[in-house]
């Protein structure tokens, strides 16, 4: 059944007799003939046709509009009504044609109303009323007929004509309704129509113009809000003057102008002859406002933008970056350093007083209480591991938000220092070197403190505690004592003092303002900041570009975070930024299959090494000489697992989007800043079970470090058949039978679990489902620069994550990562609301099989 467009509200079209227009006007009840000179449509000025993107584009942009909307059609002299289908396609041919109406009957000359009904017959005329009836009587009959018609509510409802408001009555003995023609006010399918006044070709064209003009106006109104912040920019042109400042002084002068006028100042880049000095005219405070739309600014624009200081710049930061939390970390470091030195001094004094003494004396480990034994074997390393986790919470946030701190500076930052910077997926022990190169000192302080507190301090502390005498000299029923080795202990103290100093400097660094009102979580947090300026024009054509290509295109400009929005800053004509070579592999390093095989092999070798060093005769000399050897290997496993954990957490929302039809909360999903202890619970509640397993593995690596630190014994003494003589009695060692096997079982079990989780991770996450790595803001902006969903984020830059999630859920849309039709009509790869054109397949360009709207000579080449 053909689709029939619904009429406007308030003007329902009643079903009409197909032969209405063939009945003389005088016989229409209550409708005398009214001459009409011209229709409303003929008096309406013509509309100019606007180019739109078609029905699919409108339906995606304006989901609130019905599928079919009818506009008033033109009226010819016969005042007929016509219904057109959507203007993107010509009216379809109906399935059948309504047969023409029969010829009208012959009527008597006198067509005025009389009290005696006229009998219409196709073969003879009915006798007329008596001629003696008075004119007054006939007039009263006509008035009565009109009154009765109005009382019955009969109305043809002709749109915009003079007869539509006049009452009409049905002629007696005349069947005016031959057939009922269906219609649907809600825009659903109705009965096909043909012949109900199609109108001329010119009228149809005007109706299509009106329809498309309405849709185009609504689309341009919404799209014009993108980059709306550019309307308040003051554009200051260069003027040639003698004796003015050189071109190098322009940024300073423009910044002064911006501060004086409290307005964003735009200065075009002009290539000048060195022999012709020129400058920026700062005498006049008047400029030209920039009101151009987003599509009118070219990506190669060389204008520089200078911003006035924001007196109310927000300074949001997470709790783990605040002064109270950092003060607690500094205090703990100082307390632990003092405690370590106190124990060292106490041990030395007791050794001086008693050559066989130490912190604790015992003959058999069983003589110690559970608290004493736990404090000796596990508590020191456990405390330092927990302290390292506390620093990791701060380290994650500092690395994640440093780019925003750089953008919030007075003149902004280059793309290499902000938009293209990624610390979260980088190897943790190399982060300080990269941060030092870019002068991101807050990252340097936080990352060094975390590495020292969570990695180096536990290793040194495990080596600082020893049992006197040595294994070769220990005898049954002789005193044994726990001592602190001064050299290793002083190294622990120095490291803790270093952490405290770095923490104090970090507190000073955190006085900076971030320019953020709330946590910029996920893809939505970045998209909301990119709707007020023209920053997205710099990402033209970068939807599938590599990280190196993105850096090449963005290195000629500085960027700034101003009033919670990202803006273009100063144009850099001669950029000296060195382009770092990045791998074209879209997977982070630790999620590549080669790295995975090497990492799993390393864990398996560690599983094999532990029994060899404990139970093989002669191999125990390694642990005796290097008591921190096993602890060092466990720390290496922990650090590598931390990098793997960060990669999995960062990729999770993009993986969900690549599977298509993702819920709205996916755009605000962000695990990178989640507390490591709470991560498994949060991921499990979100049904992201692999992320939860990896988070559990991260906690297990901390337990592994604690358990491995106690392995400095000869395990042969605890095997069956050993320990029957006094020289090999289990009492001669610093482990009990139960504690040894519990620790050994925990270590082997944890390592086996880590291998299983790692195999599962590389099975599920080692495939390539994106064109590049996505750890940077620039990579996200390159995915959304042509997305229609950007309209959803207009005026949301001040929303927090909870309000943003609620806002997206109210839209009732789903989202995906794949090939889409951009706002310019071209096919690009990105993140947008559904429906997308196709899924993304690595290194397969879906756009190559489609003729692009701006492709020159497309049909000829095709």
TrEMBL record:
UniProt keyword list: Membrane, Transmembrane, Transmembrane helix
Transmembrane portions of the chain: 373-391, 442-468, 488-508, 596-614, 626-644, 689-711, 740-762
Polar residues bias spans: 52-62
InterPro entries the record matches: DUF3433
Keyword Oxidoreductase among record annotations: no
Domain of life, per lineage: Eukaryota
Pro residues bias locations: 88-105
Region Disordered, residue ranges: 1-108, 142-167
Keyword Membrane attributed: yes
Pfam families in the record: DUF3433
Protein name as it appears in the record: Uncharacterized protein
Species assigned in the record: Sporormia fimetaria CBS 119925
């Amino acid at each position: 059944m053909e689709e029939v467009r619904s009429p406007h509200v308030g003007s329902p079209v009643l079903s009409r007799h197909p032969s209405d227009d063939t009945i003389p006007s005088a016989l229409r009840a209550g409708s005398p003939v009214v001459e009409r000179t011209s229709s409303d449509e003929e008096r309406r000025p013509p509309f100019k046709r606007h180019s739109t993107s078609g029905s699919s584009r409108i339906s995606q942009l304006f989901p609130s509009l019905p599928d079919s909307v009818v506009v008033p059609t033109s009226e010819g002299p016969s005042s007929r009504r016509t219904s057109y289908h959507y203007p993107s396609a010509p009216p379809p041919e109906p399935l059948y044609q309504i047969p023409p109406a029969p010829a009208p009957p012959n009527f008597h000359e006198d067509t005025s109303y009389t009290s005696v009904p006229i009998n219409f017959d196709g073969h003879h005329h009915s006798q007329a009323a008596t001629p003696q009836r008075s004119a007054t009587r006939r007039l009263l009959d006509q008035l009565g007929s009109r009154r009765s018609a109005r009382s019955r509510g009969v109305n043809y409802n002709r749109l915009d004509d003079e007869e539509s408001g006049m009452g009409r009555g049905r002629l007696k003995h005349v069947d005016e309704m031959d057939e009922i023609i269906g219609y649907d006010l809600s825009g659903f399918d109705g009965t096909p129509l043909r012949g109900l006044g199609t109108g001329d070709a010119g009228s149809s064209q005007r109706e299509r113009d009106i329809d498309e003009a309405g849709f185009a106006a609504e689309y341009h109104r919404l799209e014009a809000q993108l980059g709306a912040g550019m309307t308040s920019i003051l554009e200051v042109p260069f003027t040639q003057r003698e004796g003015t400042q050189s071109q190098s002084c322009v940024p300073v002068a423009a910044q002064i102008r911006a501060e004086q006028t409290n307005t964003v100042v735009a200065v075009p880049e002009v290539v000048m002859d060195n022999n012709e000095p020129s400058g920026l005219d700062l005498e006049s405070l008047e400029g030209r406002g920039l009101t151009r739309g987003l599509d009118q600014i070219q990506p190669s624009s060389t204008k520089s933008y200078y911003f006035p200081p924001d007196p109310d710049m927000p300074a949001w930061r997470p709790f783990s970056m605040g002064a109270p939390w950092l003060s607690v970390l500094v205090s703990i470091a100082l307390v632990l350093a003092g405690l370590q030195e106190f124990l060292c001094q106490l041990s030395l004094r007791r050794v001086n007083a008693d050559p066989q003494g130490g912190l604790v004396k015992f003959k058999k480990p069983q003589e110690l209480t559970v608290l004493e034994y736990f404090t000796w074997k596990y508590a020191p390393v456990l405390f330092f591991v927990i302290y390292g986790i506390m620093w990791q919470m701060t380290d994650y946030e500092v690395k994640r938000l440093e780019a925003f701190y750089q953008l919030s500076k007075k003149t902004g930052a280059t793309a290499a220092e902000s938009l293209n910077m990624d610390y979260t997926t980088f190897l943790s022990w190399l982060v300080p070197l990269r941060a030092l190169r870019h002068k991101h000192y807050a990252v340097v302080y936080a990352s060094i403190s975390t590495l020292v507190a969570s990695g180096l301090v536990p290793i040194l502390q495990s080596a600082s505690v020893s049992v006197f005498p040595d294994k070769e000299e220990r005898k049954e029923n002789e005193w044994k004592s726990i001592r602190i080795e001064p050299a290793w202990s002083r190294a622990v103290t120095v490291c803790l003092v270093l952490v405290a100093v770095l923490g104090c400097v970090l507190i000073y660094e955190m006085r900076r303002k971030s320019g953020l009102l709330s946590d910029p979580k996920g893809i939505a947090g970045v998209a909301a900041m990119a709707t007020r300026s023209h920053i997205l024009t710099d990402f033209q054509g970068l939807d599938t570009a590599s990280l190196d290509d993105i850096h090449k295109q963005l290195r000629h400009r500085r960027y700034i975070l101003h009033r919670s929005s990202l803006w273009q800053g100063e144009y850099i004509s001669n950029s000296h930024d060195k382009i770092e070579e990045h791998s074209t592999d879209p997977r982070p390093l630790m999620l590549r299959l080669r790295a995975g095989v090497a990492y799993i092999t390393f864990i398996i070798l560690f599983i094999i090494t532990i029994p060899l060093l404990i139970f093989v005769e002669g191999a125990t000399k390694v642990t005796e000489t290097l008591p921190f050897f096993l602890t060092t290997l466990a720390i290496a496993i922990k650090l590598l697992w931390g990098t793997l954990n960060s990669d999995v957490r960062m990729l999770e929302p993009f993986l969900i989007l690549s599977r298509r039809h993702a819920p709205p909360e996916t755009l605000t999903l962000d695990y990178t800043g989640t507390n490591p202890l709470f991560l498994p619970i949060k991921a499990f509640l979100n049904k992201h079970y692999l992320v939860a397993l990896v988070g559990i593995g991260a906690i297990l690596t901390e337990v592994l470090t604690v358990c491995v630190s106690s392995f400095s014994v000869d395990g042969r003494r605890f095997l069956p058949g050993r320990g029957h003589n006094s020289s090999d009695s289990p009492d001669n060692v610093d482990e009990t039978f139960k504690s040894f096997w519990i620790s050994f079982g925990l270590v082997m079990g944890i390592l086996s679990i880590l291998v299983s989780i790692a195999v599962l991770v590389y099975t599920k996450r080692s495939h390539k489902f994106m064109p590049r790595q996505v750890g940077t803001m620039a990579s996200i902006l390159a995915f959304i620069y042509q997305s229609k969903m950007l309209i959803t984020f207009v005026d949301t830059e001040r929303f927090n994550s909870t309000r943003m999630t609620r806002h997206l859920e109210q839209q009732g849309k789903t989202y995906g990562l794949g090939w889409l039709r951009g706002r310019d009509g071209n096919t690009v790869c990105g993140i947008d609301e559904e429906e997308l054109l196709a899924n993304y397949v690595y290194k397969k360009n879906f756009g190559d099989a489609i003729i692009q709207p701006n492709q020159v000579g497309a049909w000829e080449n095709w």
